[in-house]
Amino acid sequence: MPLDEAAFDAHRRMLSSEFVKLTAWILVILTAVLWPTDTLLFGGQPEVLGFFGYWRPPILVLAVVTLIGFRYSATVREHAALFAMISLAAGAAICGAALGHLGPLGEVYYPCSCLLSQATVPLIVRPVWRLICNLVVPLAFTLPYAYFYAEYFRSNPYAISLLVFQLLAIVASVGLGHSLYALVRGNFARREALAAQAAELARAREKSERLLLNILPGAVATQLKDGAATIAEAHDDVTVLFVDICGFTRLSGGSGAAEVVQMLNKVFSAFDALVELHSVEKIKTIGDAYMVAAGLPEPRADHARAIADLALDMLAVIRGLCDPAGAPLQVRIGAHCGPVIAGVIGRKKFIYDLWGDTVNTASRMESHGEPGSIQITDELARRLGPAYRCELRGVIAVKGKGEMVTHFLRGPA
């Protein structure tokens, strides 16, 4: 993937800023620690003491001003490479001038000081400023030295060799700086690639989890992700609802496939929204039938009322929908409460399903109901109590169950 140059530029500015601050802190600490030892070490050499006394104060001031600038000035932080070059050049000029004042005694320190003045230049991350600094810093060091000790370049036979040495040091500094820059850029590119891969994996994981949650209840999906081999639970008290579109076989035979699918999608999408609104669990669709349960996988005391409210809202929604021919749609709804067994079956295209007499009875309430009505069992009517208007239908013959007392749920009391 192509490197984000804007992001790398921000990263580069941050590194330059940290480099300058680190260098300034090192100078502050070393100056504070070593300054008191000058008299002990060089008490018999007044020229050397003068040398240290000449350059330590301005170097300390320069380091402190640099730290204050980076602490309080956004402009300084934004242009860290430029200020790094200015600080290095100023430090090199001070050091060169101090060595020049030493005269012949400073000749020994000249090569080492020259190298030290260029040692941190390769750490400047921005290539243009680093290349400029590779030229400015040696000049900032050499010109003051030559000004205060011109005899060195006029009479010393090794002056040319030292200048060549300085030129080689510049070339080495340029090469090292380029290598460090390539390393920083490569590490940034790898980090960005890893971050992009991690983001892609996170998006893929989030997508797969959303798909899993569209298939399974959240608690069941968690069990499946945790490696549960078999997911099966007995629930003692739940309410199950079935809703079926009346005359669907006739509708599907007299309409085009696209129209039928579009109608089902509109109806079931409306039901899905209601299921989410009432915080119940959609179990599955079977053709034009829609199955819902409340009270699982997490138990809830109000499962009967939740299904009753859902059923009433389903009737209200369906009144505003039409079949492909423009005729109003009608549904039959049936519900019952009691114990069920719930679990996940299959290895491919697995589903979360319910089994038990409660499920069969709820299905019979739907199939033996009337269009535009919600038929519930006597047990569910008692569970709902006086908070809902339940109209007694009476005793009806139910396939596989015999005679049962049923009610029509008409609405809240």
Description:
- This protein is α+β, with helices and mostly antiparallel strands.
- It has two domains: 5-197; 226-412, Nucleotide cyclase, GGDEF domain (Alpha-Beta Plaits, 2-Layer Sandwich), CATH 3.30.70.1230.
- Helices cover 62% and strands 18% of the residues.
- It contains 15 helices and eight strands.
- The protein has helices at residues 5-34, 38-42, 46-72, 74-78, 80-102, 110-119, 127-148, 151-155, 159-215, 218-225, 248-253, 257-278, 303-318, 357-367, 378-384, and strands at residues 232-245, 281-286, 289-294, 331-345, 351-355, 373-377, 388-398, 402-412.
- Strands 1, 2, 3, 4, 5, 6, 7 and 8 form an eight-stranded mixed sheet that branches.
- Helix 1 runs parallel beside helix 5, helix 5 packs antiparallel against helix 6 (110-119) and helix 5 runs parallel beside helix 7 (127-148).
- The mean pLDDT is 82.
Key terms for this structure?
rod-shaped; 2 domains; 413 residues; 15 helices; Alpha-Beta Plaits; 8-stranded mixed sheet; alpha+beta
**Number of separate domains:** 2
- How much beta, percentage-wise? 15-25%
**Helical content, roughly?**
55-70%
Q: Quote the distance from N terminus to C terminus.
A: 64 Å
Q: What are the low-pLDDT stretches, counting only 5+ consecutive residues below 50?
A: none
Instruction: List the helices and strands in order.
Output: HHHHHHHHHHEHHEEHEEHEHEE
Report the average pLDDT across residues.
82
Gyration radius, in Å: 42 Å
The tally of beta strands, per DSSP, is: 8
Give the number of helices. 15
| Principal-axes shape call | rod-shaped
